[in-house]
Amino acid sequence: MSNRPNPFDGLDELFDRLNRQIETAAQSWESQVDNRSQLDLSMGGSATSIDLADEGDEFVVTVDVPGYESEDLELRLVGRRLAVSGERERDREVGGEDENYIRRERTTKSFSRQLRLPEPVDDEAVQASVNNGILTVRLPKQEPSDEARSIDIG
Q1: 2 within some domain
Q2: What is the pTM for the complete model shown?
Q3: Other Cβ atoms within 10 Å of 109 Cβ, number
Q4: Is residue 43 part of a domain?
């Protein structure tokens, strides 16, 4: 018999190390979920950062969207839930054919974030703009109605 090393000798140590790393990641993920803002309805981590500010008469949402154009983004407001999503596809025209690339890391990217607004907003007056990779959404708060309404008793 030959004195070749057994390729499976280090597997137990490798599996133990991998198991410890997975447990550490799971504990970290659980603490992030526990600390997640109740306003954020997004699942999982996202490279896209989002801020919600209360500026008195309106809420202002800012979202980091580097490399996205306004036509790559979609905003939806349903009740008090704002959904922001974007998809950016790799431009095959730039630089010619794929075989011309020495290194190609820029690929199709997409994100989806949702958050629940603390108060109702006037959906007719919402404004959004993209400038230098930052999406800004202005959501004027809905004025409380002072009108008296009759309520039928059934």
Answers
A1: no
A2: 0.60
A3: 16
A4: yes
- Kindly report the length of the chain: 154
Query: Per-residue pLDDT for the chain (154 aa), expressed as one digit of tens each?
Result: 567 777 777 777 788 788 888 877 776 665 554 444 445 545 444 568 899 999 999 999 999 988 888 998 999 999 899 999 988 776 544 444 556 778 777 666 788 889 999 999 998 899 999 999 899 999 999 877 666 666 677 6
Q: What CATH number corresponds to the domain at position 102?
A: 2.60.40.790
Segments forming the whole domain that contains residue 103: 39-140
Per-position DSSP letters for the chain, written without gaps between them: ---PPPTTTTHHHHHHHHHHHHHHHHHHHHHHHHHS-TTB---S--SS-EEEEE-SSEEEEEEE-TT--GGGEEEEEETTEEEEEEEE---SSTTSSGGG-S------EEEEEEEE-SS-B-GGG-EEEEETTEEEEEEEBPPPP---------
